[in-house]
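User: Write out your own:

AI:
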Amino acid sequence: MLSGPGAYKVDVVPLYIGNGRYQCDYVAQVAGTYSYAVTMGGTDIYQPMNSVLADTSNQNLKQRVFLLTDGQVSNPQQVIDLARQYNETARVFSFGLGSGCDKHLVTQVAQAGRGSHTIVEDGCSELNGLVINALSNAMEPSLKDSQITWNGKVENKKELFRNMLLYSTHLMTEQEFQSVSFAFFTSAADSKESMNLTFENRDFKQLEGDKADALFKMAIHNEIQKQESTEKKKELSVKHQVLCKTSMIGVLK
């Protein structure tokens, strides 16, 4: 990176692999190659990330850390906890490259680090736009600890950025809906201002027909994505007739 906003600082730190580290000539060789494949198994993200986050040499700068990974690490929870430990002084924006990346790490480290995450699928042709979007988020003010509560159950807290669409779905019975409660809370990251909105049954509008069917399928799909168990995903998919990545289409002749 050759240039950036004046209020930001760019540090390049070594990546550790096993007991060794990348050598400068190897980095130069890779950087000068347009197309290449590198085996990244066993990459230690924790060490270089800790080196950056713990650096307090210039406390006047707004520290933003961009984490790129294309594989797995042996200590994902430690990396996530590290991002959470420093999220008041540094924010982490993560990129998962390709189908082999640890998507749980990519999403959770960004959430813990009050940043945004980006999954770059194999063969993606929109990488430039994804990078620009992440850079824009890093330079903008944000809303922290934003949370949605359905019937007293709090969903995961997340960071909200400018022009970011926020939506939430929740499955419940008709009886549960009669006493439904919905709440949204958020606070400004750089001030003490906050917002707390609450809604009850009478505040919701009932939909019918195609719109209701489409919304229901979206809610089921979101519920499927929340499940960690593949069997539970299949169960919901078959029960509600909504396709997901783990389901199959069968034709009875």
Summary: The chain is about 30% helix and 20% strand. The first strand starts at residue 16 and ends at 17. Residues 16-139 form a domain with the Rossmann fold fold (CATH 3.40.50.410).
